[in-house]
Design goal:
Largest sheet: none
Low-confidence stretches: 79-88
Distance between the termini: 26 Å
Number of domains: 1
Number of strands: 0
Strand content: under 5%
Structural class: mainly alpha
Mean pLDDT: 81
Length: 88
């Protein structure tokens, strides 16, 4: 089992819940939201925007959540550096 920092684990749980809701209720917006959340979390870590305390960094839950939120709220046009597009 892969060890995840608490903020990433919470986001992963939310992503799974959105995927389940989308599948169970044929709700494409929920499925899309789960994909966007997953992409934002992966991008925050892969671009080293955050380094959680659990892995020797100084970022706690609030900093990680703020970074993910910044990526999620970036303009969908991709004009801003943080734009996240759902994986297909």
């Amino acid at each position: 089992m892969r060890r995840m920092p608490s903020a990433a684990g919470g986001a992963a749980a939310l992503d799974m819940m959105l995927d389940w809701l989308g599948a169970q209720h044929a709700h494409a917006a929920a499925t899309d939201a789960g994909r966007r959340l997953d992409a934002a979390v992966l991008r925050a870590y892969s671009e080293r925007r955050v380094k959680p305390c659990e892995f020797g960094g100084t970022d706690g839950t609030a900093a990680i959540a703020a970074s993910v939120l910044d990526l999620l709220t970036a303009k969908s046009s991709g004009a801003r550096r943080g734009a996240v597009h759902p994986a297909h």
